[in-house]
């Protein structure tokens, strides 16, 4: 059976030799290895194949006998044996082709999860503009991994930075037809009008059982997209939700909607984005927004 084990070893000669010796005596074969150096200690990641019947506690005890601390072990698949530089290149390609996939791609890259789990977990937070992305796992993230995560986030920021001008707010800008969009509120709906014709809307509604969270359903006519109308509707909808008592709004869309992250950035909001299956979800705090009309 394959396992991935992480351990902190003292940065001194012979530490790895002791670990290899313990593995050899127990019939455990080291088939993969990474080193994450720090100032006074080194975090090692091993992919090992153990005899039948071993569990995580057996592997942790073995590594601790070699003098390691903070040992975490979990089962893994053959994917753990993929060349690490190749994994990062493939991850970068995936993010470049679909920036909104960043949370799930990075979570997979670092063997983490975008959802909080049971028990204590270490959190790595990355910023794509004002969008905050968090991934979690039991094994602590090393300084090297945090640097790599930040570099991946900078890559996404650069890609979206080239797209953001097309999503600039258009509050007073005239459209191709010569119309200046007007944004009208009726109950929980914000409607964008051009010459009196509805060209988009934001429907704001409370989440059942939690009035502090409101959902925003956005729709913009295809002929009027990429003109900043969605960005404006998102901002107006968020302020409306704040006026209705919301602390947070949730925006849900298809996983391949490349417009979402640039739209959130252009609206100047702080959000947390995640993708699960075919669904992309953005949670945005509105506590610092002034309610609409103030």
In short:
By secondary structure, the chain is of the alpha+beta class. It is built from seven helices and 13 strands. 30% of the residues lie in helices and 34% in strands.
Question: Could you characterize the architecture of this molecule?
Answer:
This protein is α+β, with helices and mostly antiparallel strands. Helix 3 (84-97) runs antiparallel to helix 4 (102-109). It has 7 helices and 13 strands.
Q: Keyphrases for this structure?
A:
single chain; 294 residues; alpha+beta; Alpha-Beta Plaits; Aminopeptidase; 2 domains; 9-stranded mixed beta sheet; 4-stranded antiparallel beta sheet; 7 helices
Question: Secondary-structure map with pairings?
Answer:
Elements: E1 2-10, H1 15-26, E2 29-37, E3 41-49, H2 56-65, E4 69-75, H3 84-97, H4 102-109, E5 122-128, E6 131-137, H5 143-163, E7 182-186, E8 189-194, E9 197-207, E10 210-220, H6 229-243, E11 248-254, H7 260-266, E12 271-276, E13 279-285
Parallel strand pairs: 6-12, 10-11
Antiparallel strand pairs: 1-3, 1-4, 2-3, 5-6, 7-8, 8-9, 9-10, 11-13, 12-13
Helix pairs in contact: 3-4
Structure summary, number of beta strands: 13
Q: Give the strand order, joined by hyphens, for the main sheet.
A: 5-6-12-13-11-10-9-8-7
CATH topology label of the largest domain = Aminopeptidase
- Which overall shape is indicated by the principal axes computed on the Cα atoms? elongated
**Quick one: biggest sheet?**
9 strands, mixed
Helical stretch tally: 7
Q: What would CATH call the homologous superfamily of the largest domain?
A: Gcn5-related N-acetyltransferase (GNAT)
Number of domains: 2
Question: What structural class results from the helix and strand content?
Answer: alpha+beta
Mean of residue pLDDT values:
82
Strand content: 25-35%
Compute the separation of the termini in Å: 62 Å
Helix content: 25-40%
Gyration radius, in Å: 24 Å
CATH architectural label of the largest domain: 3-Layer(aba) Sandwich
List the uncertain runs: 164-177
Order of helices and strands: EHEEHEHHEEHEEEEHEHEE
Q: Quick one: CATH class of the largest domain? A: Alpha Beta
